[in-house]
Amino acid sequence: MSNAYLSIEDQPDRLVVNVKGQWVFDEVLALEQATATVTPKAGQFVTFQCAGLEEIDIAGAWVLYDRSEQLSQMGIKSEMTGFKAAHFKFLQNIIDTAAIRDYEEPLKTPERPNVLRETFERVGQATATHIEDLGEIAKSILDGVRKPSLMMVGETIKQVYTTGVQAIPVVMVITFLIGIVTAHQAAGQLEKFGAMVLVVDLVSISITREMGVLLAAIMVAGRSGSAFAAALGVMKLNEEVDAMRVLGLNPNQMLVIPRILGLVIALPILTIFADIAGLAGGALIAVGTLGISSLQFVERVAYSTDLVDFYVGLSKAPVFALLIAMVGTLRGMQVKSSAEELGLKTTQAVVQSIFLIIVADALFAFLFTRMGI
Amino acid sequence: METIISVENLVNRFGNQLVHDRLCLDVHRDEILGVVGGSGSGKSVLMRSILGLQKPKSGTITVLGQKIKYHQPGPSRCWGVLFQGGALLSGLTVQENVELPIALHSDMPVETRHELASLKLLMTGLSLSVADKYPSELSGGMRKRVSLARALALEPRILFLDEPTAGLDPIAATEFDELITYLHDNLDLTIMMITHDVDSLFGICDRIAVLVDGGVVVGSVDEVLEFDHPWIKSYFGVPRTQRARRSAGKS
After folding, report:
1. What is the spatial order of strands in the sheet that A78-81 belongs to?
2. Spatial contact of B176 and B184, defined as CB atoms under 8 Å apart
3. Cβ distance of B122 and A25 shorter than 8 Å
4. B144 to each of B79, B86, B97, B166, how far by Cα in Å?
């Protein structure tokens, strides 16, 4: 038989395979199929006659070598002859490399993993490192309070600006829209009871106690939590953090504390803006479509909503800010080696801070109800 | 002599800075061309232009008869690149990094691909125990070897090396030079190599291209030295280069 790569002469005691044509990378699939047709009978000696070879590279030479190895495993002897020097060196290369491979220790088969044990170990280790990291941050905060540096103050102000002031427009727009939606939905239900004016109570209480601060916090978690993790992560990858340590600067003080402080200052401010925008959204619907006069609206807000409600909402802001900033900076500082890890940690920062915000909010609700506020 | 890469009248300009001023350069088949030049002389820009990663102001670049266009697929089957930092994909293991180009450019079965990738790793002097590791777990020298294995994955005819021995200790650098010479002799490679390592320059390069004043001076060491230019005079005149040249001459 014969094809573009080889022709086979079947003699009584030997099989002569004339290797010819292009034995190169692009032809590997066809070459493998072709060599698979070299099927000598038991006791036959195989000669690969390679004088007709036009071109060969490592991939092609490997296919040839691989087939002769397979044959020898089946107990069939083979030889390769007639190479041009320029072609033979590729085969030689493979023979050399294969020799190195034989000397290599066989890869150890990994032990069957003990899932339960590994899970506990992982959880334990993660808890330990988190506690360690948090402890280090807490210590840095104390140091910072004892010996505040001017650089920290400047950095904190910068953080208040980027995480707070710059976020005001977007936070106001979304709470305004949520105010509109709440009022609209409430109107549909309360109309049935002829208690349209209660729309104002509902909007003003829900916005000040819950929605304002929650929306602002979630927005900031997406906006700044990710920014913290990414910025610190890249600094870690660039060895900037290491450089700071070598220079005698505490990276926690220089990078982490200003971000935490900045956000703790910024989020309450954002919450106030969020409350105002949410009420404005409610007012737009109440006055615009529900026939409640603006004076009536203001009166009703003053009647239904205490300053306490406003403080309840506002008091949660620093706690949420602390959660966002801690998670974001912690995750950023945990980046060690790769770009992949940076993406993972940034995602974790956002997801976990939003998760923690909502858990904390639930705890607050429980606590305030118990306290009767 | 067959010309593999031909750069004609290449002009590159960044703002006011004219990096390449009608630069012409031919790279011949089966040679190792060492590219040197002061910092900012446009060594990397030249290589990036040839690879189609940089848009030149004007000029034509032909590789293996194919014209190179900016960000267009070039003859990527025919060239391999060793970037300075290795540029391994950090999300893939060593084995996957080497297999990736093969998977992209061929329809061969998975086992064959696997075998060829292992072969390339062994050929660059790596042990197969690194195959399952991620690039971040490797040392700088190993990363370069993996990157070289990836560059060789598609049986290229041209190899571009950007400072292959930078950041390696003398033992590793010497081994890397030997590896490059071995691969050059055994795989019919044409190699263009940016280097600051004077030992590799005198030890393994057939010709030297010196980038000065937006142009290029090419030739053997003696030919380049005949060219009267202060930078070339001082580059080849400093004791460090002299020593390397003497020791290369001895061996």
Report:
1. A6-10, A14-23, A45-56, A78-81
2. no
3. no
4. 17, 5, 12, 10
List phi, psi (to 5°) of B10. -70, 130
Q: Which CATH architecture has domain B3-78+157-250?
A: 3-Layer(aba) Sandwich (3.40)
Chain A residues inside the 8 Å CB shell of B187? 57-58, 90, 93
Q: In what order do the strands lie in the sheet with B32-37?
A: B79-82, B158-162, B190-194, B32-37, B207-212, B215-219
Is residue B109 within 8 Å of residue A32, measured between CB atoms?
A: yes
Question: To the nearest whole angstrom, how far is the Cα of A140 from the nearest Cα of chain B?
Answer: 30
User: What predicted TM-score, i.e. pTM, was given to this entire model?
Assistant: 0.72
Q: Report how far residue A340's alpha carbon sits from residue A65's, in angstroms, rounded to the nearest whole number.
A: 38
Spatial distance between the Cα atoms of B233 and A24, rounded to a whole number of angstroms: 46
Dihedral (CA of A57, A63, A66, A71) sign: negative
Closest CA to B124 of A93, A260, A244: A93
Cα distance between residue A306 and residue A368, in whole Å: 14
Q: Where are the beta strands (DSSP E) in chain B?
A: 3-14, 17-28, 32-37, 58-63, 66-67, 79-82, 158-162, 190-194, 207-212, 215-219
Q: Which pLDDT belongs to residue B251? A: 62
Interatomic CA distance for residues A238 and A223, integer angstroms: 23
Looking at the DSSP assignment, which residues form a beta bridge with residue A14?
A45
pLDDT of residue A106: 60
Residue A105 has pLDDT above 70, yes or no: no
Place of tokens 């291209």: B209
- Residue B154's contacts (CB-CB under 8 Å, 6 or more residues apart) are A25, B76, B77, B78, B80, B101, B102, B105
Domain with CATH 3.30.750.24 in chain A: 6-103
Cα angle value B63/B80/A28 (rounded, 5°): 100
Radius of gyration from C-alpha coordinates of chain A:
36
CATH hierarchy code of domain A6-103: 3.30.750.24
Where along chain B do the CATH 3.40.50.300 domains lie? 3-78+157-250
Q: Give me the sign of the Cα torsion angle B219, B220, B221, B223.
A: negative
Of A59, A89, A107, the CB nearest to B129: A107
Q: Tokens standing for B86?
A: 């290795």
Q: Rounded to an integer, what distance in angstroms lies between the CA atom of residue A254 and that of residue A239?
A: 15
Q: Which residues of B touch A26 (CB under 8 A)?
A: 106
Over the stretch A196-243, which tens digit does the pLDDT of each residue have?
A: 889 999 999 999 999 999 999 999 999 999 999 999 999 988 888 888
Distances (CA, A) of B150 to A344, B82, B125, B164, B214: 26, 8, 13, 14, 32
Q: Is B5 exposed, middle or buried (0-12, 13-18, 19+ CB in 10 A)?
A: buried
Contacts of A78 (CB under 8 A, 6+ apart): A45, A46, A47, A48, A68, A71, A72
Shortest Cα–Cα distance, A90 to chain B (Å): 7
Predicted ipTM?
Answer: 0.80
Q: How far is CA A101 from the centre of its chain?
A: 38
Gap from A105 CA to chain B (nearest CA, Å)? 9
When the pLDDT of each residue in chain A is averaged and rounded to a whole number, the result is 88
Read off the DSSP letter of residue A227: H
The three-state DSSP-derived secondary structure of B8-29 is: EEEEEEECCEEEEEEEEEEEEC
